[in-house]
Amino acid sequence: MTPHKASRDNAYDVLVIGAGAAGSATAWQLASRGHRVCLLERFEPGHRRGSSHGRSRLLRLTYPDPLYVGMAAEALRMWHRFESETGAGLITRVGAVDGGGADRLDRAAAALTAEGAAFERLTEAEAAVRWPQLRLPGDVLFHPDASRVDPDATLPALQRQAERFGCDIRHSTPVTALEIDADRARAHTPSGTFTAPVAVVTVGPWTSRLLDHVVKLPALTVTQEQVFHLPPRDPSAVWPAFSFQAEDGAIVYGMPTADEGVKVAEHLGGHEVTPDGRDGVVDADARRRVLDFAAERLPGVEPVVSSETTCLYTNTADEDFLLDRVGPLVIGTACSGHGFKFTPLLGRMLADLAVGEADPNPRFRLGIPAM
Fold first, then answer.
1. CA–CA distance, 119 with 135 (Å, rounded to integer)
2. Average per-residue pLDDT in the chain?
3. Domain with CATH 3.50.50.60 in the chain
4. What's the angle, vertex CA 151, arms to CA 240 and CA 331, rounded to 5?
5. What pTM value is reported for the model?
6. Nearest CA to 24 among 9, 46, 57?
7. 3-class SS at 178?
8. According to DSSP H, which parts of the chain are helical?
9. How far apart are the two ends of the chain, measured CA to CA in Å?
10. Of 227, 287, 295, nearest to 261 (Cα)?
11. What pairs with residue 198 in β-bridges?
12. Of 259, 256, 62, 49, nearest to 143 (Cα)?
């Protein structure tokens, strides 16, 4: 396939706005199908202001919802194909242990069984023997194919593939306004106006600001989450990833990292912010809660923080994604802190919506009539 050249008049088949994980995967999918694509990103490559940075995300199938189990299984297959096709070293198999909430584990086990995914159910005593560095009460599920993926390597790999197929990538090109007509999208930037018959918007925390005047959105909240790295007591110990849901519904998860110790964080433990007004300061109460959890449940780590950072979640009330098309506008957002594992699949789903090869899944619609 001959790569496309940058359009002289800034007119393309598809605009993709936002070069995080979902946007980069969508641009790759569309460009690989022969479409003339422009990927617009407001920040420089490798920025840390959104939701797609860092050294580790978890690829796991353990959901109590069969829809997400099936999607995660397909995404995991796509991750392995992408890694094989590109030669990018992105994925490390670590396995994952999930505990807390007998009903949640029962539903997850049923969904995994229906998918044909490998897993084990272990008692508390059996788990303690296998992973003495963990101390999770009650039964646990172990999913051996769960893997760690490196976001900081993933985004450049996706963008290299998109460019290979002719995608025009414009970093440091913020979209200041988006106009949607019946059959065309216009993205206004300081570098000029870019047009296409369809625009895919994958701007995460900036979704409401860019689209509130364009389309009616459901309520979205942006939260600043904290991530902590704790040193293992035994550097040679083999850690699985883990997730534990307490009786009050709070979830703490973690995983081994390549060179940062054991990552430990709360899911949806942060406070509401605006994407441009966040302070990036780690919440002291969140740090205390994570260290308390480590002291009680993670005997294999030193209960001290060796490094910490923040990131942003964009959340819906039910934690379902928003993947929908309204006229020439495709929206892919609100991954609610669990979307990175689905990156290649989200790219395919959004590309299918953009070119009319699929209808939106009713679970992921905006809840408004299409134009």
1. 19
2. 95
3. 14-51+152-219+318-364
4. 115
5. 0.96
6. 46
7. strand
8. 21-32, 66-86, 102-115, 124-130, 151-164, 207-211, 284-297, 343-355
9. 35
10. 227
11. 14
12. 62
Judge contact between 201 and 332, C-beta under 8 A: yes
In angstroms, what CA-CA distances link 113 with 69, 108, 329? 10, 8, 37
- Give per-residue pLDDT as tens, 170-224: 999 999 999 999 999 999 999 999 999 999 999 999 999 999 999 999 999 999 9
Q: What pairs with residue 143 in β-bridges?
A: 96
Superfamily of domain 93-148+221-315: D-Amino Acid Oxidase, subunit A, domain 2 (3.30.9.10)
Structure-block tokens of residue 3:
């790569």
Q: Which residues pair with 189 in a beta bridge?
A: 192
- Token pair 């807390």 is found at 100
CB contact at 8 A, 123 and 59: no
Q: Which CATH code of 3.30.365.10, 2.60.40.10, 3.50.50.60, 3.40.1190.10 fits the domain covering 14-51+152-219+318-364?
A: 3.50.50.60
The 10s digit of each residue's pLDDT in 298-338 is 999 999 999 999 999 999 999 999 999 999 999 999 999 99
pLDDT at 360: 96
CATH 3.30.9.10 maps onto the chain at 93-148+221-315
**331, 323 in Cβ contact below 8 A?**
yes
> Rounded to the nearest 5°, which phi and psi values hold at 365?
-80, 165
Per-residue model confidence as pLDDT tens digits over 16-49: 999 999 999 999 999 999 999 999 999 999 999 9
d(CA 35, CA 124) in angstroms, rounded, equals 52
Q: Is the dihedral of CA 88, 94, 100, 101 positive or negative?
A: positive
Percent of the chain at pLDDT above 70? 97
Nearest residue to 168 (alpha-carbon basis) of 5, 24, 13: 5
